[in-house]
Amino acid sequence: MLSDGDILALLGDGDVSDIGSEVDELEDDNCFPIDEFDQLLNDFDDLSSDILPDIEEVEPDFINTNKRDIHWVQKPFEPPTINLEDIESEYIDTLKTPIQYFSEYFGDDIFVKIAFNTNLYATQKNLGSKFKLTDEHEIKTLIGIHMLMGCLKYSRVRMYWQKRFFVHLIADNMSRNRFFNLRTNFHVIDNNDIPPCNKDKFIKVRPLCDSFLRKCKSLPVEKNICVDEQMVPFKGKLCIKQYVKNKPIKWGIKIFLLCGESGLAYNLFLFQGFSELDPENIKTYGSGGSVVLRLTENIKPNRHFLFFDNYFSSYGLFEKLLHDKIYAVGTIRANWFAKPPFLSDKLMRELGRGTSFEITTDQPNNYNIGLLKRYDNKPVHLGSNFVTSGELDVVRRWSKKEKKYVDIERPEIVRIYNQSMGGVDKMDQMVSYYRIFIRSNKWTLRMAMHFFDLAICNSWIQYKKHAEILKIPKKKLWIRWIFVWISQKV
């Protein structure tokens, strides 16, 4: 057995160890091939850049604020910073006539198709010698006669061929019997091509709608655009016929239009129920909001201001449009906006005419919405995702109480809404002046002629806008058009 002295003798002075000393560790560090290791890392970086693709930052999916999480704050709305991109300018070298603009909406192929299906329908009815086959030129003449009837309105169609009311431009181009024969057999598609499980109630006029929309979607869109509904007058039997009590045309077929401030149509949606809309959008934004998203799906972001009325407005819609960089203003229904704490009508009436009250949200996602209640002759509620009071201006209004004009303040949101919301109404007004005269129980004929009405109005607006770009005086527009039309006829 070893004694303590023998153990100490074996250990010596303690410098010898199997673990190693500090000097040995330093020597090992100096021996590590650092240069080779750095070269390997550089070679790996070069190799990974060729093999591994660049990873793009994916924007998280947009999530609407839950209605229970909306908190209103009684403070001025802080508008977002807006730097709109420039709208692409349209290059115009020569001014066309409205007739040439109209031909861009419906090409010759459409009229060839109508002529073919009209002949086919007459053949399927076994009319035989009672019906003479038609062609695209006669179909154009038929439509042109309908347009003339819209300009010169008689109480009955037959009067245009009667001696007392004879219209040479109509009667010299087509006989009365031929006119009624063509109109009776007018067809855009072959009925046998309609599938048994068809759900499109407008399938019989869908080619005309698609042709019109194709041109509309190619037009450069104005900065200020609006969405509203339009009624096509019709009282016959039709499952998609609507009744809207507050409209000048109460019975008819409903269309939703996207128009510019000038009245130019850029998109439309034929209403046949909400089955064509995304169910998730209907659940989140409501039926009206889903229509707005459908019509604006091709609108480029950060270029436009959008306006609509309280049928379409919802909190989620304003949020979604702000996320898509479409800046919106609309009248609202206060009970759709999570009980906003507005002042009562009685209190605002006491405060005086022109009183405004403003509230806003304070959301962590920075998608804040501002609401404004203004009392003029009666209270009105408006909402926006980019402006509320803004820059105030002064307007003159007649006071029944004081029997004189008085000056009242007007918020910016009211001014721009009144200025830009009337695009669809302007289109309605233009169509109503010379609407194609139709008295028929066939809804397909009424809808087909309405598309021609829309194309006529769009063509005239394009003609005026292009004349303004070319700096042609307004008083020369009609003279120039008539001169070109006469020269083409001669």
Furnish the topology, listing elements before pairings.
Layout: H1 4-11, H2 22-30, H3 34-51, E1 72-73, H4 98-103, H5 108-124, H6 136-151, H7 168-171, H8 176-185, H9 206-216, E2 224-233, E3 242-243, E4 251-260, E5 265-270, H10 279-295, E6 305-308, H11 315-323, E7 327-331, H12 345-351, E8 355-361, E9 370-375, E10 379-384, E11 393-399, E12 404-410, H13 412-420, H14 423-433, H15 443-469, H16 477-489
Parallel strand pairs: 2-6, 6-7
Antiparallel strand pairs: 1-8, 2-4, 3-4, 4-5, 7-10, 8-9, 9-10, 11-12
Helix pairs in contact: 5-6, 10-11
* Helical content class: 25-40%
The rough form would be described as: globular
- Topology, number of strands: 12
Q: What about the largest sheet?
A: 10 strands, mixed
First-last Cα distance: 138 Å
Secondary structure tally, helices = 16
Q: Give me the Rg, rounded.
A: 35 Å
* Order of H and E elements: HHHEHHHHHHEEEEHEHEHEEEEEHHHH
Tell me the structural class.
alpha+beta
Mean pLDDT: 85
Q: What amount of the residues lies in strands?
A: 5-15%
Low-pLDDT sequence parts: 17-27, 482-490
Written description of the protein model:
The structure is a single chain. The protein is of the alpha+beta class and 490 residues long. The protein has helices at residues 4-11, 22-30, 34-51, 98-103, 108-124, 136-151, 168-171, 176-185, 206-216, 279-295, 315-323, 345-351, 412-420, 423-433, 443-469, 477-489, and strands spanning 72-73, 224-233, 242-243, 251-260, 265-270, 305-308, 327-331, 355-361, 370-375, 379-384, 393-399, 404-410. Strands 1, 2, 3, 4, 5, 6, 7, 8, 9 and 10 form a ten-stranded mixed beta sheet that branches. A two-stranded antiparallel ribbon has the order 11-12. A hairpin with an 8-residue loop joins strand 8 (355-361) and strand 9 (370-375). Helix 5 (108-124) crosses helix 6 (136-151) and helix 10 (279-295) crosses helix 11. The N and C termini lie far apart (138 Å). Residues 17-27 and 482-490 have low confidence and may be disordered.
